[in-house]
Amino acid sequence: MTEVSSLTGRLLVATPALADPNFDRAVVLLLDHDDEGTLGVVLNRPTPVDVGDILEPWAPLAGEPGVVFQGGPVSLDAALGLAVVPGDGPGGLDGPPGAPGPDGTGGHRVDGSPGGGPDGSRSRTADAGEPDESDEPEGLLGWRRVYGAIGLVDLEAPPELLAAELGSLRIFAGYAGWGPGQLEDELAEGAWFVVDSEPGDVSSPRPETLWRDVLRRQRSELAMIATYPDDPSLN
Questions:
Q1: pLDDT at residue 83, as a whole number
Q2: HSE (CB half, 13 Å, CA atoms) of 164?
Q3: Is it the case that residue 235 has pLDDT exceeding 60?
Q4: What architecture is domain 10-234?
Q5: pLDDT tens digits, 105-163
Q6: 219 Cβ partners below 8 Å, 6+ apart?
Q7: Which residues, in sequence order, are bridge partners of residue 169?
Q8: Pairing relationship of beta strands 67-70 and 143-147 according to DSSP bridges
Q9: Strands, E, within the chain: which ranges?
Q10: Rounded Cα–Cα distance for residues 154 and 98 (Å)
Q11: First CA to last CA across the chain, in angstroms?
């Protein structure tokens, strides 16, 4: 298979033409992308469930709105946490201890028990390796960098280990996954725009406007698409 140029750390922004209801006006942060597949979380799907209802110890660190977000259609019973470490420089990709691996294992179930496997068809198939604690940022146990200042949180760690260092935390139930070549096919079909992420995207206090906000800040014709009506028949 031809080597894939990694899009890890970038955003997928659904085009108005994307018909899949799971991703209508979705903004997806890519946590892992290589020739074995792709894994990400949808940043703008808040649910009515408070973080305190499923992960009470982490609720004080959750940003507004303090609810669980639906990260995607795969493994909806597994939770993962994303948080920004302010001022942290760019870095490499590492999987977090206890966070879902490419096959959905690990992490934390939304009922409080250890993580679960995928229950959807759009899952990665690569095996998850054992976490290597030596790869954690020095002095910050329980957080693994994904890209720049954005990292995944070990939800089985004591929150007090991270409370002083983290920016606002966001909890996701489920994730979005693509097998080898699937995302590339969707990109070729024009289903997604690929744009740079900003640390604030993870914890936007107004997720309902994130799709338009991300497009509006682009210095290209994409900024015009931010005005696209919710009902295409009104265009």
A1: 95
A2: 5
A3: no
A4: 3-Layer(aba) Sandwich (3.40)
A5: 335 555 444 443 333 333 332 333 333 444 444 447 899 999 999 999 999 999 998 99
A6: none
A7: 62, 83
A8: unpaired
A9: 10-14, 27-34, 37-42, 46-50, 67-70, 74-84, 108-109, 143-147, 150-153, 169-178, 192-196
A10: 5
A11: 41
Give the type of residue at 65: P
66, 206 Cβ separation under 8 angstroms: no
Strand partners, 41: 29
Q: Which of 231, 199, 201 is nearest to 216 (CA)?
A: 201
Q: How many CB atoms are closer than 10 A to CB 126? A: 17
Q: How far apart are CA 144 and CA 48, in angstroms?
A: 28
Tell the residue number behind the tokens 């960098």, with chain if given: 145
According to the model, what pLDDT value does residue 76 have? 95
Closest CA to 202 of 23, 81, 51: 81
Closest among 198, 232, 191 to 213, alpha carbons compared: 198
Question: What are the beta bridge partners of residue 144?
Answer: 152
Extract the tokens encoding 22: 């799971």
- Tell me the pLDDT of the chain averaged across its residues: 80
| Amino acid identity for residue 208 in this structure | E
Helices (H), the chain: 51-54, 182-188, 199-202, 210-216, 222-225
Hey, which residues does 42 pair with through a beta bridge? Answer: 28
DSSP 217: T
Distance CA 235, CA 214 (A): 20
Q: Do 92 and 177 touch, CB atoms closer than 8 A?
A: no
